[in-house]
């Protein structure tokens, strides 16, 4: 037969936007090779949300997995973490374990449909290491994929497994199995980590889920070898499995219906500013700062005299999706003054971030340092002013500042006291022609070139991320060949 049958890949991310989005980006990247049919599995609500993002001509199929959260103390019909109160996230994590039989059935049905052929590969979330057993039962290759960077994920993994701060009386400690990360300070712990005692539901779940990553045949990370060797080394050592840095895997187009400003308008505004003169400020899609921090930041922006684009969202304590009330949350007349002087642009809710970061007028990014934002900034050679707020963002900043030298931390967390003078000082240090600023810009350009090289594929040259992807697909093929050979006998 001339037309070659496409290999099949099954993907299952954890049911949270921060996990689904990198999986979607990976699915779209794999789809571009035209070699695979991809079955993207999730709860029905998430599948509905995903449908518009799947191009009509793609070989990506969305498949619903039944999920009943009601027995885990969750509100009826909970299918993702979107509007789940913080104290129920652990219950949701626990409830996700109940997907096992349904996922097994999906794989088993799939094998039956394919006349006994197992999927070429099953790719699941870092919280779903338990899928390895199911994939292997049916003879499929199993990989974990995480949208995190190696270093940040390694710190997070080690912290949860060891809870080292629990036996520590001082404010600083080192990670027992990751000393290369050097000291961690208690202010660098996410709230749920701070509260963890090893017996709480979150700890119990993560401490059983994370080590199951070791059962996978390999781990895919959204990062670049040359940038992230220390973190990659941790997982290689810890799991004894291949770890493939295939990043950056990013969605090229994330414009949303809720976008408050068109990319054109933004570009137009930026076009009127001199090269390298604008600070871009955003805290990502899920995190906000407190009302008093927002006030200090606004005063700092006014005092430092720099051009800026700021994606504003309601402060801590308000519904993240409610209307932004500049009159209540910013200094009096701030928005009008910024508009009148054309100094600053306030964008409500959602900005075309990738377009902004790639504009030559932008010279620094004040960011919560979520990993996607980090990759987007560095891909454009833009140094960062770090303000981590949650999860592994604290360790992303640590990597960027201490190991790479492209970031300066300005504040830490949603409840720290931050003074406008300090913010001004740090913004100036990064944006002005200071020794530090120049060094950071130089380094950021180097990193940009490094990232460009990693994804480069030309005749005789394959970048590290291209190679890592090849190695992953080869490993899966090898398993496939092994199975064929076994079947032939
Ligand atoms: N993003 C955007 N516009 C916004 C805010 C966020 O396009 O106003 C995009 C951003 O480009 C990135 C993602 O949303 O791709 C945020 O991911 P990240 O890992 O940085 O942080 P998270 O939102 O998961 O905390």
TrEMBL record:
Molecular-function annotations in GO: anthocyanidin 3-O-glucosyltransferase activity
CDD domains in the cross-refs: GT1_Gtf-like (cd03784)
Pfam families: Glyco_transf_N, UDPGT
Organism of provenance: Populus tomentosa
UniProt similarity note: Belongs to the UDP-glycosyltransferase family.
Enzyme class: transferase
Catalytic activity, EC: 2.4.1.-
Listed name of the protein: Glycosyltransferase
Entry-linked InterPro entries: Glyco_transf_N, UDP_glucos_trans, UDP_glycos_trans_CS
Biological pathway: Pigment biosynthesis; anthocyanin biosynthesis
Keywords linked to the UniProt accession: Glycosyltransferase, Transferase
Catalytic activity entry: an anthocyanidin + UDP-alpha-D-glucose + H(+) = an anthocyanidin 3-O-beta-D-glucoside + UDP
């Amino acid at each position: 037969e001339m037309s070659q049958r496409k290999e099949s890949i099954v993907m299952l991310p954890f049911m949270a936007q921060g996990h689904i989005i990198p999986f979607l980006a990976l699915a779209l990247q794999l789809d571009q090779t035209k070699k695979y049919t991809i079955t993207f599995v999730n709860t029905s609500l998430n599948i509905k949300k995903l449908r518009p993002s799947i191009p009509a001509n793609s070989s990506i199929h969305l498949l619903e997995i039944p999920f009943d959260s009601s027995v885990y103390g969750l509100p009826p019909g909970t299918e993702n973490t979107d509007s789940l109160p913080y104290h129920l996230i652990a219950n949701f994590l626990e409830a996700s374990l109940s997907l096992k039989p349904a996922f097994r059935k999906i794989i088993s049905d799939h094998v039956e449909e394919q006349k006994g052929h197992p999927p070429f590969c099953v790719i699941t979330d870092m919280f779903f290491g338990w899928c390895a057993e199911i994939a292997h039962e049916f003879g499929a290759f199993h990989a974990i994929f995480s949208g995190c960077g190696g270093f940040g994920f390694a710190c997070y993994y080690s912290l949860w497994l060891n809870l080292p701060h629990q036996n520590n009386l001082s404010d600083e400690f080192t990670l027992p199995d990751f000393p290369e990360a050097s000291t961690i300070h208690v202010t660098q712990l996410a709230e749920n980590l701070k509260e963890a005692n090893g017996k709480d539901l979150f700890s119990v779940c993560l401490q059983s889920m994370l080590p199951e990553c070791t059962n996978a045949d390999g781990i895919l990370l959204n990062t670049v070898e040359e940038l992230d060797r220390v973190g990659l080394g941790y997982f290689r050592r810890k799991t004894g499995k291949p770890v493939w840095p295939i990043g950056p895997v990013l969605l090229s187009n994330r414009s949303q219906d809720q976008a408050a400003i068109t990319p054109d308008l933004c570009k137009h505004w930026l076009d009127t500013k001199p090269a390298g003169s604008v600070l871009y400020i955003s805290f990502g899609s899920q995190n906000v700062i407190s009302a008093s921090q927002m006030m200090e930041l606004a005063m700092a922006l006014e005092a430092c005299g720099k051009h800026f684009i700021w994606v504003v969202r309601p402060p801590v304590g308000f519904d993240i999706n409610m209307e932004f009330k500049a009159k209540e949350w910013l200094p009096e007349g701030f928005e009008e003054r910024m508009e009148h002087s054309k100094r600053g642009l306030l964008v409500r809710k959602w900005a075309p971030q990738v377009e902004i970061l790639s504009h030559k007028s932008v010279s620094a990014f004040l960011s919560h340092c979520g990993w996607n934002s980090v990759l987007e900034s560095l891909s454009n050679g833009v140094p960062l002013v770090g303000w981590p707020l949650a999860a592994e963002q604290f360790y992303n900043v640590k990597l960027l500042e201490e190991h790479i030298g492209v970031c300066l931390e300005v504040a830490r967390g949603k409840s720290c006291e931050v003074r406008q003078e300090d913010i001004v000082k740090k913004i100036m240090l990064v944006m002005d022609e200071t020794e530090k600023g120049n060094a950071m810009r130089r380094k950021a350009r180097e990193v940009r070139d490094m990232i460009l090289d990693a994804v480069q594929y030309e005749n005789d040259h394959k970048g590290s991320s291209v190679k890592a992807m090849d190695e992953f697909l080869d490993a899966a093929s090898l398993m496939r060949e092994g199975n064929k050979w076994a079947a032939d006998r």
